[in-house]
Amino acid sequence: MAGRTDADWLAVGRGPVQSRRAAATWTVAAAASLFVLGLVASRQLDLVWLGVWAPLALVAGSRTALNQARTHRRATRVAVIGSPATTVALSRQLEDAGVYSHVIVGAVAPGVGAVAPGTPPEEGLGRVGDLRHVIQRHRIDLLLMTREVSRLEVFDVLAESCPDLDVRLMEAFSFYEEQFGHVPLCEINNAWFQYVLHPRFRGNRAVAKRVFDVVVALAIAILLLPVLAVAALLIAADGGSPIYRQTRIGARGRPFVMYKLRTMRHDAAADTRWATANDGRVTTIGRALRATHLDEVPQLLNVLRGEMSLVGPRPEQPHYARELERTVPFYSRRIWLKPGMTGWAQIHCGYAGSELGTFHKVCHDLYYIKHRSLRFDLRILWLTMGAVMLDRRRQFRALEGLAPFALERLGGTVIGEEPTTASAGAPPQ
After folding, report:
1. Which CATH topology does 76-180 take?
2. Can you tell me whether residue 105 is helix, strand or coil?
3. Which residues are CB-contacts of 85 (< 8 A; sequence separation ≥ 6)?
4. Residues 256 and 302 sit within 8 Å (Cβ to Cβ)
5. Beta partners for residue 259, in sequence order
6. Which of 49, 44, 96, 100 is CA-nearest to residue 72?
7. pLDDT in tens, 253-294
């Protein structure tokens, strides 16, 4: 990796999207300039108006120049204090996510002395005891500490040998949160929750969130009531009740009855397995309801009754929750909050689809627990509307960002591999 990251002036905007934006910005600016000059030359633009618009154009041009400078700034060179495998996994995930603002230079092994024999030079930069030499030789800007290294060892070396170097240090899980919007379960332990338990921590205020839930839920219910009536009639034509009732786990582990529009055959309740993209149990109208998420709208009743919130971790059935608590780290921490109709995990992961998918969703649920606020809730609701309208297949898309979990095991299955069995149950609806 060190060899291909020597191009320090990595265009952080070298990605195709950012490059097109930069080209479009300069094209529009040039066209506007020529247009204004043409009006001045033909005396169709009064100089008074030119004096009014000139300051505005100057401000817009300055912002454009600033954005361009930020886009082409030198990439942050990162060394990971941990194993080469963890370092390679993080590098791949940055590439997959299109993050070019940081470049992984290589791994720094714990301890002192030379790196292990046979370690590729592009992966093994040195050891913690030789951090000063590593930082200077490879021009490191940022050090990431994984859980594989002693924090005290790193702090001691930095304090004794690197106090004059312009280098920064942060925990690997904090880096994941900033760059990818989820918490890597393989990088945290119970100490991570000190952030949530801190006296200064402020999440959603209970009263404010409740008022927000009631007002928005009532507005949505009134707006969609005619659509729900038509959908209920179409479902009833298939036989059986149009409303599907199911016991789920709510806040603090209290069970409640959750309501949905039925999307599967009325005789599918006995067939408990993970839902798939082409699930034969789903009816024709059910597919349309799932694609638009209209089947979830009856849960507004649960929101008005105080059993759910508009935004939060999705609730699970009691027996599945007990199974997942034994295999998925920190799964039970999700019930600190009221479950939600949508959430940060729903936007990024959709339906779990497997035990591995649940593992991925918990990473996002923990991120929401730490960063929750009414402003964040509004953002999630906005993104949910966009996902419903523009990304209909999102709930079954391939899992993203699983590279850092490849070293962990979940119920005998290596994280990052496809489950070998579909025996793990899941709610049919």
Report:
1. Rossmann fold (3.40.50)
2. strand
3. 406, 407
4. yes
5. 245
6. 100
7. 899 999 999 887 765 555 555 555 556 677 878 888 887 888
Whether residue 407 is predicted with pLDDT greater than 70 in this model: the reply is no
What single letter denotes the amino acid at residue 339?
P
The pTM assigned to this predicted structure is: 0.72
**pLDDT for 168:** 94
pLDDT over 60 (residue 335): yes
Q: Is 17 helix (H, G, I), strand (E, B) or coil?
A: helix
**Structure tokens that stand for 321 in this block:** 């929750």
Q: What share of the chain is helix, strand, coil (3-state, %, to 5)?
A: 50, 15, 35
Domain parsing of the chain, residue ranges: 12-71, 76-180, 206-414
Residues 173, 187 contacting (CB under 8 angstroms):
yes
Q: What 3-state class would DSSP assign to 390?
A: helix
First to last CA, the chain: 46
CA atoms within 13 Å, Cβ hemisphere of 152: 0
The tokens for 138 are 């490879």
Matching residue, tokens 């021009």: 139
**C-alpha Rg value of the chain to the nearest Å:** 26
Predicted confidence at residue 419, as pLDDT, reads 36
Helix axes 355-371, 374-390, angle to 10 degrees: 140
Region of residue 139 (phi > 0: left; psi between -120 and 50: alpha; otherwise: beta): left
